User: Which sequence fits this backbone?
């Protein structure tokens, strides 16, 4: 899971633009956007963090990677959040 805070998302149009930008470079991605928290979560199949960040930037937004959230589950101990085993 790759997670960004995108503080300059302010409306539904922004959500659509960010989602469209991600899907343009990673058509198979699952994109979840929480506008209230300004958070974008991406389950990518092939694109890396930098590629996705650049796509969002090119759409006119400022994504900031959430530290530690972008590790694959296996790197966090094999579970979704790293706390269970």
Assistant:
């Amino acid at each position: 899971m790759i997670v960004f805070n995108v503080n300059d998302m302010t409306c539904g149009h922004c959500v659509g633009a960010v989602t469209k930008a991600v899907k343009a470079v990673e058509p198979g991605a699952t994109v979840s956007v929480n506008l209230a928290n300004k958070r974008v979560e991406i389950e990518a199949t092939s694109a890396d963090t930098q590629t996705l960040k650049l796509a969002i930037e090119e759409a006119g937004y400022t994504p900031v990677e959430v530290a530690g959230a972008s590790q694959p589950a296996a790197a966090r101990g094999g579970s979704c959040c790293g706390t269970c085993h």
Observations:
- The beta strands are 2-6, 30-34, 39-43, 63-65.
- DSSP finds two helices and four strands in the chain.
- The radius of gyration is 13 Å.
